[in-house]
Design brief:
The complex is a heterodimer.
Chain A lengths: L1 H8 L2 H24 L6 E3 L4 E5 L2 E6 L1 E3 L4 E5 L2 E4 H23 L6 H21 L2 H24 L9 E6 L2 E6 L8 H23 L1 H5 L5 H5 L1 H4 L6 H47 L5 H31 L5
Parallel strand pairs in A: 3-8
Antiparallel strand pairs in A: 1-4, 2-3, 5-6, 7-8
Helix pairs in contact in A: 3-5, 4-5, 5-11, 6-10, 6-11, 10-11
Chain B lengths: L1 H7 L3 H133 L5 H15 L1
Classes of the chains: A alpha+beta, B mainly alpha.
């Protein structure tokens, strides 16, 4: 109220004249950025609020950036807001694990019962993917860790305060609002790290169970060429089939990269899009309108966590089975 | 690729930090939560399986014991019946034997007595005859008074004796 009164006091005409050119340039810059869709570094979802500060006007830009903003730097490591959030999540999981460790009993309590139910349910789903309880149990800790971590990352991004409490930093002449916390999976570094771990782990498991030679031959198929002389007398079609097999193996290498890319961008895209959607909805009408979308995002968070972990599981079981296809 | 890194601010340090996060989560979750939990679950499964097995065994045992008991009881009854029958039969036999023996004894005693009586009777008769003969001789001597010659005497006695017989 005081600010607006002040504006009126200092003769609006004068003020606008004094800063009109500056404002104009700023507006153009923002327009240029938003228009440039190819290089859409900044997605503006909320209006730029005009704030009067010591007689000057500045835009306070609320935007959902595609990347996580650093809020501090420690020994060369940029502490981004999503990194902080992931640490919170890790802490939660550590505490949960500690609680379970302390209270684990043969006759389960409520928490243990719920946890056991989840574990049993997952083992059931895993069995349908891997085809055997033994394999499921082997991959269970890893895949379940993926699931739990991603689920809590996703849901932590939806909590009130995450993305809405922050500080104002000056970037390129703009007053940028930088939230202290950002959903862990709304940062490509997180999703890429998880995808890399998953895919690399599938290769490690593949080498451990099948041996280096067998695993390598899935991609660079020496075997296919080596068995041509043996088989060619029986069946001359190996002359055509085996080079094709070798070529398919080479395509598999690209497939592995595609796995990483698809895992990374699927998770990141879904969660980031959810945040943008929620921000847009609350910009239209902050009361009531975002609620159904919030429910949807809770569901999306669960589904994406499930998809990610089940995909990792299928990659793991595929890599450890003797023959692809 | 560079523009991708530029747009999304992909940072090797952040990647490593996130990987460390995951490493912490998987190790803590595995060693603190999943491992003991799985162990407990497995133990419980085993325990339940064992107790169910035990229950089954106990039930079987009980059934068997019951059957054994019934069989033993049946056998005992049968044996008892057999023994009873035998005892009855033996008792009957003994009784009959005793009766028979008693009859025989009685018969023997009666026969003895009869024989004795007959012997006595015969004795008495003989004595009576002897006496009668003496008396007759004496009375005849007296009656006749006169002595017949020895030869006539003898004939007469014989005649009387034969008549008195």
């Amino acid at each position: 109220m005081e600010n607006t009164e002040n504006i009126h006091d200092v003769s609006p005409h004068e003020r606008i004249e004094g800063h009109s050119e500056e404002m104009h340039i700023e507006h153009q810059a923002i327009l240029a950025e938003t228009m440039n869709t190819e290089d859409a570094e900044h997605i503006i979802d909320e209006h730029s609020a005009v704030v009067e500060h010591e007689g000057e006007t500045h835009d306070l830009v609320h935007e959902n950036t595609l990347f996580a903003e650093p809020i501090a730097e420690v020994a060369g490591l940029p502490i981004t807001n999503s990194l902080v959030n992931t640490w919170v999540v890790v802490l939660i999981i550590v505490l949960l694990s500690y609680f379970i460790r302390k209270n684990v009993k043969t006759i389960p309590g409520k928490v243990q019962n719920a946890f056991e139910m989840i574990v049993e349910g997952f083992l059931g789903i895993f069995d349908s993917v891997t085809g055997s309880r033994k394999v499921s149990l082997k991959f269970f800790p890893m895949v379940f860790s993926f699931f739990l971590l991603i689920l809590i990352y996703n849901w932590m991004g939806l909590l009130p305060g995450v993305g809405s409490v922050g500080q104002v930093q000056v970037h390129d002449g703009h007053n940028m609002f930088i939230p202290y916390l950002r959903g862990g999976t709304a940062d490509i570094n997180t999703t890429l790290a998880l995808a890399l771990i998953g895919v690399v782990a599938s290769h490690i498991f593949g080498i451990l169970t099948l041996g280096m030679w067998n695993h390598l031959n899935k991609f660079v198929n020496f075997k296919a060429f080596m068995e041509i002389p043996k088989k060619v007398k029986k069946d001359w079609t190996v002359l055509i089939v085996n080079p094709i097999k070798a070529f398919v193996g080479l395509i598999e290498i690209i497939g592995e990269l595609a796995k990483v890319a698809s895992l990374t961008f699927r998770l990141f895209g879904n969660i980031f899009a959810g945040e943008v959607l929620l921000a847009s909805m609350s910009a239209i009408l902050a009361f009531g309108l975002p609620i159904p979308f919030m429910f949807m995002e809770v569901l999306v968070g669960l589904i994406q966590a499930l998809i990610f972990s089940i995909l990792i599981l299928s990659y793991l079981s595929m890599a450890t089975s003797a023959e692809e296809h | 690729m560079d523009s991708l890194i530029e747009i999304f601010h992909i940072d090797a340090k952040l990647l490593i930090a996130q990987m460390i996060n995951f490493a912490i989560v998987i190790s803590v979750l595995y060693f603190f939560a999943l491992k003991p939990l799985m162990k407990v679950m497995e133990e419980r499964t085993k325990k339940i399986e064992k107790s169910m097995d035990d229950a089954k065994r106990i039930e079987e045992k009980l059934e068997k014991t019951d059957a054994d008991y019934k069989e033993a009881l049946g056998n005992a009854k049968k044996e008892a019946n057999v023994i009873m029958e035998k005892a009855t039969a033996q008792a009957e036999e003994k009784r009959e034997q005793m009766i028979k023996k008693a009859k025989e004894d009685i018969g023997a005693i009666i026969n003895d007595e009869k024989a004795k009586m007959q012997a006595e009777k015969a004795e008495v008769l003989r004595e009576i005859k002897k006496e009668v003969a003496g008396m007759v001789t004496a009375s005849l001597e007296k009656v006749l008074e006169e002595k017949v010659d020895a030869k006539a005497d003898k004939d007469l006695i014989k005649k009387i004796v034969a008549e008195s017989k």
